Amino acid sequence: MTALDENMVMLREWIEDGLDPSQPTVIDFIHSFHNADDADGFAQAAISIGYEAIAYEPVDEEGIWEVVASCIITPTCDAVTAVEEDLEALALDFDGDSEGWHLPEV
């Protein structure tokens, strides 16, 4: 299943739960990093291209840093997938991994 297909399934579930796909909404894109420098570098790079981004210190013994990069977009499958792919490519520049995305509770 492609990222586009996965996003289509997720968005359908959110729409069934009440999301209005015609209204712009905040979407959080989650990324993981092995150290503070990479997490902070990604967060700053994401901010420099228009995203809001926050790095969170590890909360367990694995030591994985999480960065949430957010934007407001109309939640279409194409739009979500495009942002997800752009941020994933940026995360790779900082040895990070994409962990998916979340919508606010509806």
Short description:
It is built from 3 helices and 4 strands, in the order αβαββαβ.
Q: Care to count the β-strands?
A: 4
Oligomerization status of the protein chains = single chain
Strand order of the largest sheet: 2-3-1-4
Strand content: 25-35%
Map the helices and strands.
Blueprint: H1 3-16, E1 25-33, H2 36-48, E2 52-56, E3 65-73, H3 77-92, E4 97-102
Antiparallel strand pairs: 1-3, 1-4, 2-3
Helix pairs in contact: 1-3
Explained architecture:
The protein is of the alpha+beta class. It contains three helices and four strands. The chain has a four-stranded antiparallel beta sheet, covered by helices on one side. The longest helix has 16 residues, at 77-92. It is elongated, with a radius of gyration of 14 Å. The model has no long low-confidence stretch (mean pLDDT 92).
